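This protein record is not my work; I was only asked to verify it. The record follows directly below this note.
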Amino acid sequence: MKTILILEDDENLSRGIAFTFERDGYDVVSAGSIKDGKRMLEQHKIDIIILDLGLPDGNGMDLCKEIRTHSKVPIIMLTACDLETDEVSGLLAGADDYITKPFSLSVLRARVEALLRRTEAENRHIILSSKYRLDTNLCKFFREAEEIPISATEYKLLYFLMTNTGQVLSKEQILSSLWDNEGNFVDENTLPVNISRLRAKLEDDPKNPHIIKTIHGIGYIWNGGM
C-alpha cells in the first residue's frame, strides 16, 4: 500500500483529496502546516507528497527545496497561481509535477499514478539501505547526497551485501559473488582487504564497525548503520 502525504491547509480540499485516494486503496496522512508536515515525514514512510505552496507557517516551495536536500520522494505542487514563472520556479525547486487550482480530482489521481509508476521504474535501479544508496545504473554509491568513490570490486561487494541486508553471509558466498564474468578465481585476501577499505569509507570507527559487521567464524553481515 502506497502512502500519500497531503500538505494542504484548506481542510475541505484536503478531506476531498484524502477521500479520493483512500477509496482507491492508498494510505493517506494529512497536515495543514509545514511543522506538521515535517513531523509526518519523520513518522511515516511517504511514497508521494501533494504539497500546497501557500501554508500558514511558510512557503511550500522552501519546504520542497529542503526535502530535496535529503530525499527523492515524488512531489506534486498545488497552487492558485497559474503564471508560467511560478510553474518553472516550482519545478526548479524540485517538484516533479505542478497543478493549478481549481483542478479535477480525477486529473490529480492520474498525475499521482503516473508519477508513482515512473518512480517505481527508476527505483528498480536503486538499492536503498538506511542512508546509503547504490545506483546500479551508474555503478555509484552514495551516503545521502554525497557520492563515495568505490572500485569495481567494492561495487560488487556492496551489491551482494546490500541485496542481502540483515543476512549472515559466509566468506565463500561473498567470494563467489566477486568472481569476474569469466569465472576467474578471486584470491581469498581480496575479501578482507575490500571489507577493510569499505569500512574506512563508511564507518565512524572502522575498528568497531556497525555497518559491515564481522560474524566470527562465518563471514559478514550488512547492517546498513541500523
Observations:
- The two ends are 24 Å apart (CA to CA).
- The helical segments are 11-23, 34-43, 60-68, 84-92, 105-123, 152-162, 171-177, 190-202.
- The first helix runs from residue 11 to 23.
- The chain has eight helices and 14 strands.
